Amino acid sequence: MGWEIRMSNSRGVPYYFNADTKESSWDTPEGLNQDEVKGLPGAHYLEGSGGKPKQVRASHLLVKHSGSRRPSSWKEPNITRSKEEAIEILRGYQQQIGNDAKVFGELAAQHSDCGSHSSNGDLGLFGAGQMQKPFEEAAFALDVGQISDVVSTDSGVHLIMRTA
Q1: Sheet of strand 24-25: strand arrangement
Q2: CA 156, 102, 53, 23: dihedral to nearest 10 degrees?
Q3: Where is the WW domain (predicted)?
Q4: Cα–Cα–Cα angle for 70, 91, 56, rounded to 5 degrees
Q5: For the chain, give me the number of helices (H) and strands (E)?
Q6: What's residue 11's pLDDT?
C-alpha cells in the first residue's frame, strides 16, 4: 500500500504520499475507503470534527522578561526588563505591524527573543499539547492571516500570527 498523509509546506494543507512509488496526490487515492484513510500514518493532519484543524502553523514575536522561564536569548544573555516593560515593547511592535505579515516577519527576525527569529518567527506546524496552553489556545482561535493581541506564557509575552 505505502500511502501516508503529509502536510504541504507551501500550501499548509494535507496531501497523500506513497512512499513506495513516490506518487503524491491532493485527492484520496483510488481504492482507499474512509476507515483506511483514518488508519494511515499522518492521518492527524486531516481536519478534525466540527471543522477544527488538528494542527495550525503560526509565527510569533516573543519578548522575554525577568520572570520568563529562561530570561536570556540569542541577543541578550541576561534579560532584566519587567513583564510590564516587555508588554510595552510588544505593543510598540504591534502598532508598527498593524495587519502586515511582511512587517511581522521583519520585526520577528530583528527583535524576537526566540530562536525562531532566524525564520521570521515561523514555528511550523503544531497540534494540541505541543505548545504552552495560552499560546496554543490563542493560535487555534485565530483565522489564517490574523494576528493576536498580547499573549502571556511562561516564556514571555508574544504576538502570534496564524499562517495556516
Answers
A1: 3-7, 14-18, 24-25
A2: -130
A3: 1-31
A4: 65
A5: 4, 7
A6: 66
Spans of all domains in the chain? 3-46, 55-162
Residues belonging to the active site = 60, 114, 132, 155, 158
E strands, the chain, in order: 3-7, 14-18, 24-25, 55-63, 122-127, 151-153, 156-162
CB 147 within 8 A of CB 160: yes
| Predicted model pTM | 0.70
Q: What does the alpha-carbon distance between residue 5 and residue 27 come to, in Å, rounded to a whole number? A: 11
Mean pLDDT of the region 79-96? 98
Distances (CA, A) of 21 to 3, 16, 32, 41, 45: 9, 12, 16, 16, 21
pLDDT tens for 22-81 read 998 877 888 888 788 888 888 877 755 344 577 889 999 999 999 999 999 999 999 999
Distance CA(103)–CA(120), nearest Å, equals 10
CA atoms of 149 and 101, how far apart (whole Å): 14
d(CA 164, CA 152): 22
Q: What is the DSSP secondary-structure string of 26-40?
A: SSPPTT--HHHHHTS
Tell me what pLDDT residue 14 has.
Answer: 80
Q: Spelled out in words, what is the top-level CATH class assigned to the domain 55-162? A: alpha beta
